[in-house]
Amino acid sequence: CRVCHGAGDLAAVTAAALSGHPGWLYCYLGTSGWIATEVPSVEAVAPRAFVVRHTIPDRSIIAAPTTTACGNLLWLRSLLFADIADDAAAFRAMDAIAASAPPGSGSLLYLPY
């Protein structure tokens, strides 16, 4: 029995987003999220980076992931905007509040973990 393992979401999205341009970066936001790039070798990777194999054999992917990116917005919506039935309207209300916040917002830290 032979088993073939395809690329996971990180490798597939990186191959499509960067199209073989080592050094370029992109940001992916879904339920989880990451900022990633591709490199020809892993020798210079920071110890805290997440490294996976690339779909191109001689490359690797370096990513800084977060376990919940947009998923935390759904959680916030359920807590603060449950009275708004329409999802789009609820997110527009969230956007309006965020847009009215002053830069720095008193050193507020957003840490979606």
UniProtKB/TrEMBL annotation:
Superkingdom of source: Eukaryota
Residue intervals passing through the bilayer: none
Keyword Endoplasmic reticulum applies: no
Keywords: Kinase, Transferase
Gene3D superfamilies cross-referenced by the UniProt entry: 3.30.420.40
GO molecular function terms attached to this record: kinase activity
Protein name stated in the entry: Carbohydrate kinase
Organism: Chrysotila carterae (Marine alga)
